[in-house]
Recover the amino acids of this structure.
């Protein structure tokens, strides 16, 4: 399911290191943001979400940071594992009161042994 | 498993064929979505259904015709497609379509139009 024709940004990290994947969003009025992970041959899998009234949210081994001043979203993955290899998408909900996600192009994360 | 299933997983069809994609969600959700993921564009929203009513048609050509007979099932009927319609078609569901809620995706149907 990866967008192989797109020139995806790529990030290569050593196994065990921390990964930071960045995303710029477009609408300052977006009220909700989600990170998805998509492995080859699969649909996007929910990782973590954050509302616009928050700056940071932590999950299991993942943290999402939201900087509304510069309209920037990041996903931090701690102690990266081989199973983390995938394409990661951020999505913003641009229409308040409605569920209308707009997805970024994605970043391909590769884990080096 | 996300609770959203799609069939078939792969489909090859000629431009004159008529086929249908099926999606089923087992999550008790009230909203369902069709997305297109192609090699040249990010994930694109096609249609949104809320409580079996279409609430969004994102300028999709009429050769794609959605159907939502109940809140658990969603179909995408295809006819007279073009080669550029080849893509991964993803179905998703969420608790509702009117608020902040995460969407759960199926595995997709890989469509090739010859």
């Amino acid at each position: 399911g990866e967008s192989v024709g797109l020139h995806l940004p790529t990030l290569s990290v050593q196994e065990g290191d921390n990964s930071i994947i960045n995303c710029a969003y477009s609408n300052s009025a977006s009220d909700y943001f989600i990170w998805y992970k998509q492995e080859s041959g699969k649909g996007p899998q929910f990782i973590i979400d954050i509302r616009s009234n928050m700056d940071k949210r932590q999950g299991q081994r993942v943290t999402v940071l939201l900087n509304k001043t510069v309209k920037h979203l990041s996903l931090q993955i701690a102690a990266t594992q081989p199973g983390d290899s995938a394409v990661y998408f951020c999505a913003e909900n641009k229409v308040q009161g409605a569920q209308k996600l707009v997805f970024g192009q994605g970043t391909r994360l590769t884990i080096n042994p | 498993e996300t609770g959203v299933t799609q069939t078939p997983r792969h489909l090859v069809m000629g431009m004159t064929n008529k086929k249908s994609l099926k999606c089923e969600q087992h999550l008790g959700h009230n909203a369902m979505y069709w997305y297109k993921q192609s090699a040249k564009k990010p994930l694109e929203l096609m249609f949104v259904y809320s409580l079996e009513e279409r609430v969004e048609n994102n300028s999709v050509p009429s050769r794609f015709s959605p159907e939502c007979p109940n809140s658990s099932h969603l179909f995408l009927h295809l006819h007279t497609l073009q080669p550029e319609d080849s893509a991964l078609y993803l179905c998703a569901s969420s608790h509702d379509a009117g608020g902040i809620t995460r969407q759960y995706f199926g595995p997709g149907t890989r469509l090739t139009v010859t």
